[in-house]
Amino acid sequence: MRLQSDILVLGSGIAGLTFAIKAARKHKDRSILVLTKTVEGESNTRYAQGGVAAVWDLEKDNFDKHIADTLDAGDGLCKTDIVKIVVEEGPERVREIIEWGARFDKEKNSTEYDLAREGGHSEHRILHYKDLTGWEIQRTLMEEAAKYPNIKVLEHYYALDLITQHHLGRMIIRVTPDIECYGCYALNKENGEIDTLLSRVTILCTGGGGQVYKSTTNPVIATGDGVAMTYRAKGRVENMEFMQFHPTSLYNPAGENPSFLVSEAVRGHGGILKTAEGEEFMQHYDPRLSLAPRDIVARAIDSEMKKRGTDCMYLDCRHLDKDDFVAHFPTIYEKCLSIGIDPMVNMIPVVPACHYMCGGIKVDDHGRSSIHRLYAAGECSSTGLHGANRLASNSLLEALVFADRIAHDIDEKLEGWSFQDGIPDWNAEGTTDPKEMVLITQGMKELREIMSYYVGIVRSNVRCQRALDRLYLLYKETEELYRTTAVSPQLMELRNLITVAYLITRSASHRRESRGLHFTTDYPDQLPFIEHSVL
Prior knowledge:
The protein is α/β, with parallel strands linked by helices.
């Protein structure tokens, strides 16, 4: 089947739906097609616990403070102009989703918002909805998007590849200056058919790739699809070595995927990191103690675990008021109880887990990628806001701001873009149904072990080279499967994650210093110059 839409959006999280709503308002006569590979409500956004950071209390906070906190967390690699744009435009974007119905928590018996503080922030500026902020934002956006008849959401559609001049028979390399995107091929998971989706402009809002590691707070859909598709289409990708590990996922000996996140807001609320013996340890790593930026806290926990030979560290909340804790963190409280831990009686066992991709598809200040008519927003993009390490709760803010900026940027251009003729349908000739799914599932297991053991929180030249060698073998085996068997979501996710793993490892190999989220034992010091790893 061939479908045409004026605007094609891949992903239905905060970036994708915010953009779709704004585009629908501006272009009531234009069709907007939103693809999601599961259901509309399932996205990385939905799992965000902490909140959205924005300068709100102008008596105590200001833009300069938020900018300074972001630059400090980014460890010298943030783009200052982008940080300024996001911080200064952010509050207005948050007001918009409040107008659409987002119910952020307010102080008791007050109309003022209950602003939380998280690691790396100098002030209380986090708007939140209990410990389900992402769920609340997703709910709000879905209800608002449903009001616009020109927005159509296709569920259970898996985007396979971006369509460019390559599909018209033209040779394209990474330095080709005028690559254009004409839409994508997508697998209809309900009937197994591969449809050709043509559009005037395509916006990638496909989220992160946390499933590349064994332990991640990301949902199972976070397989780096947008980054991998862009790289295959010869688009520019940067800073992939900076994978953020959240310091405090819940340690569950039984294992679970995704790992359950114990929000940074718990530490902002007064939770203290300790050893099994109840001793604090963060004073040995940073004067901000348990509220240091995530890269510092994650490495500190990892260091203490290795030093002591233990499986986890602990978050002590026993001194906090129970009613207040339960009111702020009902989901975390219930989850802990479900595995036999009462946070008011027992310390919460925590361990770092892969959480957020700070690099991604290289975009400019309006979300434009290196491929014409292709934009990116949200976690799959690299705007320059996060630099070498993301400041807590800046991600939702970035998605809101760039969704808005993309919507404005396409205003005058949309009329000038036309549908491309001559695009062929997907060619599945010579393939057969996969007969051994174990090849895919085992490949996924091997991939996650390679990345977790060799390219995790602490790296080295030897580890990175060993990872590249193993990944190449896995790549060859998977490409042979792709060449000879019919595509499936499982095969494509494995293929995409191998690409993401390669980009992370290759970028890590190129950065011969330790900076932000990238720490290597061969180059433990930070160098005085600034660079971006563009692939």
